[in-house]
Amino acid sequence: MLKGVHQKLEPQQTPAFFVRGASPFSRMVFFCALSIIIMATDARLNYLSQLRQGFIAALHPLEMIAKAPSNWVRDVNRYFSAHNQLVQENYALKQQAFEHQVRLQRLTTIEAENTHLRSLLNGDIPIQPKAILGEISHTGRDPFSLVVVVNRGSQHNVKAGQAVADSKGVIGQITRVFPFSSEVTLITDKGLSIPIQIERNQLRAIAFGEGNNTLDIPYLPANVDIKVGDKLVTSGIDGVYPSGLAVAKVTKILQNPESPFAKIISTPVSEVSNHLQLLILELPQIKEAALPVTTTIATDANATVTPTSVVKPATKSPASANEAKPNAPN
Amino acid sequence: MRPTSLVAVIITLLIALICQLFPWAGQGVILRPDFMLVVMLYWLLRAPNLCNVGTAWIAGILVDLATGSLLGQHALSFTLTAYIGLSYQRRLVLFSPWQIAGYVFGLLMFERLLMLFLKLFEGNSFPGWAYFLPVISGLILWHIMIMLFGALTRPKHK
Fold this sequence. Notes:
The complex is a heterodimer. Chain A is an alpha+beta fold. Chain A is 36% helix and 21% strand. In chain A, the strands form 2 sheets. In chain A, strands 1-2-5-4-3-12 form a 6-stranded antiparallel beta barrel. Chain A has a 6-stranded antiparallel β-barrel with strand order 6-7-8-11-10-9. By secondary structure, chain B is an all-alpha fold. Chain B is built from 7 helices and no strands. The two termini of chain B are 12 Å apart. Classes of the chains: A alpha+beta, B mainly alpha.
């Protein structure tokens, strides 16, 4: 009789073994083992990145569907944004462009002079990196890593390892590339470090992300010549980040008498959360390709002598204001 | 309880995946429920003949691939959560809706703790108490699922 009640309450279930299949416990053991094997493979062996790329590419249509409503809202908002505001913005941008052009004119002469002086000294000629303009499509879905996803991928010639900057300074580095998007790990992420230089005294060091919007410069002696307010710029000795990009500003120096090292905390100058556009900088060429690089520099210099062409408002990185290509050159 | 079909399970899981892919920003990231987990748990507790530990594993792998975390992390935590969920599944019809909600709360909390454990093991630091907010929003989503697809405790007596 009890059995009758039981079956009435659960009409879908038959207690027979063969209908239920393997017991939940054996299934659990099997799938746990499988996921642990996959975790080990993914963490240590790098076999699965292809699979991940393929899956993300296959997911792209779904992602488009997911993004559609917010895109519509944005489009409608744009449509109704006041004419007055646009005029004002246009005016401000024109003024800014004009100022930039004036500065650029000086920059080209200074650059030419610099190149000339360096060639006299038999030094290496600094390279202006090319850049791809990208837009942040969303922040990372994993709360543990500081990541943003950009709408440029391997289809737009983005490669893993490229540096990413905005108009204020370095944002981070491309860590994963998918066909239509790529993942930018921010410099504040725990897993990322960046070679820097103190702008004031050219002291070289390496800054490590702390995972909470600050950078740490460890292993420097307690009496090191760094002050609060010092600007950190990329040193360019790693072959990833072009030299001279702003990275962070020193905000706090903690002196612990028990420790031989100073605890130097700095906050990044880039404003990832404030705007969407960012620049993906091309990896600097390695020395081996010295000859072709000099030729491209020559043509670039010719091209930049006349900076009268339209200055795009979004491409205002200090490193490559006139080199930026809004779309992938491809 | 109305009979359910495999198609409904697959479609709702797909919709959950789309919700997971939705570009959440600002406060939304902190509050975002684990769509896949809640939808999967709903079908698991309601129709374990259609959605079992294997489905949970597949859902977890999909979440892993979509979020870009270490492959297999969510799969492992979803599998274990599904197993624990299944172990009391047959008794749930006797519970009141609030008791079931409490049970789901426990399961969601367990999954979060397991995920936290795995992440700490990987070398991350504790992200703060807001990390557990998705459990609350997950419960809200659970009630939405019940409103849409019917409660677990409503046997049709004729």
